[in-house]
Amino acid sequence: MSDDVRNIDEALSRITAYWQPHRLTSINDYDVKVVKLHGEFVWHDHPETDELFMVLSGELTIQLRDRDVVLGPNDVFVVPRGVEHCPKADNEVHALLFEPQGTVNTGSAGGEMTSPLRELT
User: Fold this and answer.
1) Cα of 65 vs its chain's centroid, Å
2) CA dist., res. 120 & res. 42, Å (int)
3) Collapsing DSSP states into helix, strand and coil, what is residue 18?
4) What confidence tens digit (pLDDT) does each residue in 56-91 have?
5) 35 in Cβ contact with 22 (< 8 Å)
């Protein structure tokens, strides 16, 4: 990982597809990922790790089996490890994700929405 300064807005301007996280930077054993979201993702969980969502713009709903959590700009929510969830965005959302390196976006669900972590170019 480069020690260069990274700009979140510039990084987001390079992302052309939804639900495809890109590494902004790494700290210790964690990746800080930028992502654009729109539509509904897949129900999944991460058995080994918590997942932090920070919304930069837009409104993101984290559907849980027992409730919905609605996040707006500058809101942060942590999905605890092993909790099944399904992010949903009715309009485009820009977000940061904080996860251990190697975390797969679809967790244990897999499937066609699984996206390898992309590097910003």
Assistant:
1) 19
2) 24
3) coil
4) 999 999 999 999 999 999 999 999 999 999 999 999
5) yes
